[in-house]
C-alpha cells in the first residue's frame, strides 16, 4: 500500500482489521514453534550468491522487544528474496521505519533519495515483518512513484491491480522463505520458523473470501466488481481474490515475478482503461516476460484473440 504525501489514504490498509484478528488466532503456532527453536539443531544460513539486493537502513528504535540485529536478518532475507527477481535493476536504497498506522511505501523520499517504507509489525512477529515488507518492497519494484499526479493526488483507477500484484508477491515471499529457512535459517534463532511462514501463507491463501464461486472465472468476477475496484482500490477482500490467481501465474512461470519491474512505466498509464494498462505493461516487457503478462491478460479476458488462445492453452495445462 502506498500513500501520497498530499492526500490522506487512511482507508488503505495492508493488514486490515479482519486480518489483524485472524493473526491473533494464528499466534498460538508461534508459541509451539518457540519450543522447537530451543532444541532443534540447525545449519546456519549459507551465502546465496550475488543478487541485486536493496540496500536497507533500519530505524534504530521503535520495533518493540526485537533487536535491530535480529530484524535486519529478517528484512535482509526478504530484500534478497524479492530483489533476485530483478537482476538488471539498480538496487534501490530503502529506509525502513516503524509506523503507528498501516504499512506504507511513501511517495516522499528521504533526504538522500531513499525510498521510505513504514511497517506496523512489532516485537518478534517475524511472519508479519516478512509479509508486510515484501508487499511494500514490491511497490518499489513496480515503479509506483512514476504515476501521474493531478492536483496533489494520484490517479488510482488501476491501483487495485498493483495492490493485488504486491499481495501475490507477499504470498510468494512467505513460500520462498519458508522453503529456504527450513534448510538454511538466517541464524539458529530462526530454526523451525520456516514452518510458521508456510502456515501463514497457507492460512491466507485458503481464506474463504479469496475463493471464486463454483464455475465462476476471474474475468466474470472482474466484470461484476470492476467499478468498485476502480473507485476504491484498497478493498482488501477483492484484492486478495485477484492475488491468489496471480500467485499461480507467477509461481508457474520461470522468472515471472521479474515482469513486475516493467509495470507503470508509461507516465499516464494509471488513467487508462484496464486493458490498455495491461497492454502497456506487456509492451514494456522484454520478450522473456511477455508470456507472463499475456497469461494475466487472458485471466481477465483482455488479450487480443491470438494471445487469448495461446494463454488459455497454457493455463489449461496446469
Task: Summarize this structure briefly.
The chain has 318 residues and is of the alpha/beta class.
Count of the separate structural domains: 1
Proportion of strand residues = 5-15%
End-to-end separation in angstroms reads 31 Å
Mean pLDDT: 84
Transmembrane segments: 21-39
Organism: Azoarcus sp. (strain BH72)
Protein name: Conserved hypothetical secreted protein
Keywords: Membrane, Transmembrane, Transmembrane helix
Structural account:
The chain crosses the membrane at residues 21-39. This is Conserved hypothetical secreted protein. Keywords: Membrane, Transmembrane, Transmembrane helix. The chain has helices at 17-26, 28-39, 68-83, 126-141, 159-183, 193-205, 218-231, 236-252, 274-284, 287-299, 305-316; strands at 2-3, 55-58, 93-98, 104-106, 115-119, 149-150, 153-154. It has one domain (55-316): Neutral Protease, domain 2, CATH 1.10.390. The protein contains eleven helices and seven strands. It is globular, with a radius of gyration of 19 Å.
Itemize the secondary structure elements and their pairings.
Blueprint: E1 2-3, H1 17-26, H2 28-39, E2 55-58, H3 68-83, E3 93-98, E4 104-106, E5 115-119, H4 126-141, E6 149-150, E7 153-154, H5 159-183, H6 193-205, H7 218-231, H8 236-252, H9 274-284, H10 287-299, H11 305-316
Parallel strand pairs: 1-4, 2-3, 3-5
Antiparallel strand pairs: 4-5, 6-7
Helix pairs in contact: 3-4, 3-5, 4-5, 5-6, 5-8, 8-10, 9-10, 10-11
Amino acid at each position: 500500500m502506498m500513500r501520497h504525501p498530499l492526500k490522506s489514504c487512511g482507508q488503505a490498509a495492508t493488514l486490515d482489521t479482519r486480518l489483524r484478528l485472524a493473526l491473533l488466532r494464528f499466534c498460538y503456532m508461534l508459541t509451539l514453534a518457540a519450543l522447537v527453536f530451543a532444541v532443534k539443531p540447525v545449519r546456519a544460513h549459507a551465502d546465496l550468491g550475488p543478487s541485486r539486493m536493496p540496500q536497507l537502513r533500519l530505524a534504530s528504535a521503535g520495533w518493540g522487544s526485537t533487536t535491530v540485529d535480529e530484524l535486519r536478518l529478517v528484512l535482509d532475507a526478504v530484500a534478497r528474496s524479492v530483489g533476485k527477481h530483478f537482476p538488471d535493476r539498480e538496487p534501490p536504497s530503502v529506509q525502513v521505519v516503524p509506523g503507528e498506522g498501516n504499512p506504507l511505501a511513501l511517495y516522499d523520499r528521504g533526504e538522500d533519495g531513499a525510498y521510505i517504507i513504514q511497517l506496523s509489525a512489532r516485537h518478534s512477529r517475524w511472519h508479519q515483518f516478512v509479509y508486510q515488507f515484501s508487499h511494500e518492497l514490491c511497490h518499489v519494484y513496480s515503479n509506483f512513484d512514476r504515476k501521474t499526479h493531478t492536483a496533489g493526488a494520484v490517479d488510482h483507477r488501476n491501483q487495485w491491480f498493483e495492490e493485488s500484484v504486491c499481495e501475490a508477491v507477499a504470498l510468494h515471499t512467505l513460500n520462498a522463505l519458508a522453503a529456504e529457512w527450513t534448510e538454511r535459517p538466517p541464524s539458529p534463532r530462526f530454526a523451525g520458523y520456516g514452518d510458521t511462514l508456510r502456515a501463514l501463507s497457507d492460512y491466507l491463501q485458503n481464506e474463504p473470501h479469496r475463493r471464486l464461486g463454483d464455475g465462476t472465472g476471474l474475468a466474470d468476477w472482474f466484470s461484476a466488481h470492476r467499478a468498485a475496484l476502480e473507485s476504491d482500490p484498497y478493498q482488501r477482500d477483492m484484492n486478495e481474490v485477484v492475488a491468489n490467481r496471480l500467485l499461480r501465474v507467477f509461481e508457474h512461470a520461470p522468472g515471472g515475478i521479474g515482469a513486475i519491474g516493467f509495470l507503470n512505466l508509461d507516465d499516464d498509464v494509471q488513467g487508462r482503461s484496464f486493458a490498455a494498462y495491461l497492454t502497456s505493461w506487456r509492451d514494456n516487457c522484454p520478450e522473456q516476460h511477455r508470456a507472463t503478462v499475456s497469461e494475466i491478460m487472458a485471466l481477465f479476458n483482455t488479450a487480443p484473440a491470438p494471445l487469448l488462445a495461446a494463454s488459455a492453452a497454457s493455463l489449461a495445462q496446469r
